[in-house]
Amino acid sequence: MSPRSLCANTKRNQNILKISVFALILLILLQYYVMTTTEHRLRVLAIGLRNGNSLANLNATAGTGSKSSRLKTPPFSVLRENGSSVGTTLPLCPVVSPELIGPIHVIKRGPAPWNWLERNLLVEKGGRYKPEGCTSRHRVAIIVPYRDRDDHLRLFLQNMHPFLMRQQLDYGIYIVEQAGRTAFNRAKLFNIGYAESIKDYDWQCFIFHDVDLVPEDDRNIYSCPDHPRHLSVAIDKFRYSLPYDDIFGGASAISREMFEKVNGFSNVFFGWGGEDDDMSTRLRKHNLIITRYPERFARYRMLSHKAAVKNRERHSILTQNLNHSHKDGINSLDYKLKTKEQRPLYTRVLADVISTKVEDDTRWKDNPRLLQLVKEIGSVDLARAYLSSS
Ligand code: NGS
């Protein structure tokens, strides 16, 4: 072999060696990446779901936005020691749950079938859960007003259970369904949820939550601080900005103590709008300040739906109610409970929101139009005023 071809051969061998070493390093790095992400996903999976789910569902549960799998330091003071689960002797859970992952990928479309959800979301009957190895610091009832939105309900539960589990809460989800076809009364359903849930357990904190809102970051802790907290600060549909300072709709947290102090929500708002503003007025009256987490944590996706029917009377009811909150609320709550059952993923409360007093009142007998209006508006005075002006 000539010295020239010998030299070319050596060069080729060196190149092959270089490429092989490079490929080996790449392979090792790739394997390391796969191992660490899989380990993280399995850890997250173990919290909420059984093994054997599809990768799409793993993604949805584990979250894709956060590089660090666990939060080493609390981003802000998130939890306070305000009690513990009833009937356990385990040590208190850490102040900041080690299971938090930060931003979460929200499942917005294609809800899983009920039987899949029931097999894979590891909660107790009635949608109850408490952490296994420690005593939760918070007993939280999630109250969701509801009617005819099966897709939303499945998406809500699919997103929400793993989210709440990671926060190490002792919680229960109550879906409070309005029976009949009269205008939707969101606030009264909240009051009914409160009244029915405290019959089951000593809840210390209430989250009043719309079924079409799904949180995007689990650092948005569902606990109750000393003052009420408006949770849904930044919603995608509203370009992640707060419509106005006093807004209290969407999702909010109020301790039982404060909720009782302000006499709960008003019962007289039928149809869309105003009931949350009425609650803001109640809070202000009692010198309670609406608090909020920073926008980057309190982010939500809104599930798409048709616009609700607006309550044309909402502004006058708001004005009328300024001095009535002490007699319109949980102390005047009147409803007919049709069903209460512990389903696998939530407690279902089905109620007729029409006050029994209205239906039993014989004065309406001769005036079915007025009766209908009273049922829809919830106020005799307003119904009369409405009839005389129309
Ligand atoms: C106000 C409504 C609130 C409602 C808020 C935001 O105008 O009930 O808009 O609604 N108050 C009245 O109508 C008096 S939103 O567009 O975000 O769904 O919560």
TrEMBL record:
Pathway involvement of the protein, from the record: Protein modification; protein glycosylation
Entry keyword Manganese: yes
Segments passing through the bilayer: 16-34
Record Gene3D superfamilies: Spore Coat Polysaccharide Biosynthesis Protein SpsA, Chain A
Enzyme class, spelled out: transferase
Domain Galactosyltransferase C-terminal residue range list: 229-306
Domain of life: Eukaryota
Domain spans labelled Galactosyltransferase N-terminal: 93-225
Coiled-coil parts of chain: none
Cofactor: Mn(2+)
Cellular localization per UniProt: Membrane
Pfam families assigned: Glyco_transf_7C (PF02709), Glyco_transf_7N (PF13733)
The entry's keywords: Glycoprotein, Glycosyltransferase, Manganese, Membrane, Metal-binding, Signal-anchor, Transferase, Transmembrane, Transmembrane helix
Enzyme Commission number(s) of this protein: 2.4.1.-
Membrane topology note: Single-pass type II membrane protein
InterPro entries: Galactosyl_T, Galactosyl_T_C, Galactosyl_T_N, Nucleotide-diphossugar_trans
Metal-binding is among the record's keywords: yes
Purpose of the protein: Catalyzes the transfer of galactose onto proteins or lipids.
Family the UniProt entry places it in: Belongs to the glycosyltransferase 7 family.
PANTHER family hit by this protein: BETA-1,4-GALACTOSYLTRANSFERASE, BETA-1,4-N-ACETYLGALACTOSAMINYLTRANSFERASE
Protein name: Beta-1,4-N-acetylgalactosaminyltransferase
Species, as recorded: Priapulus caudatus
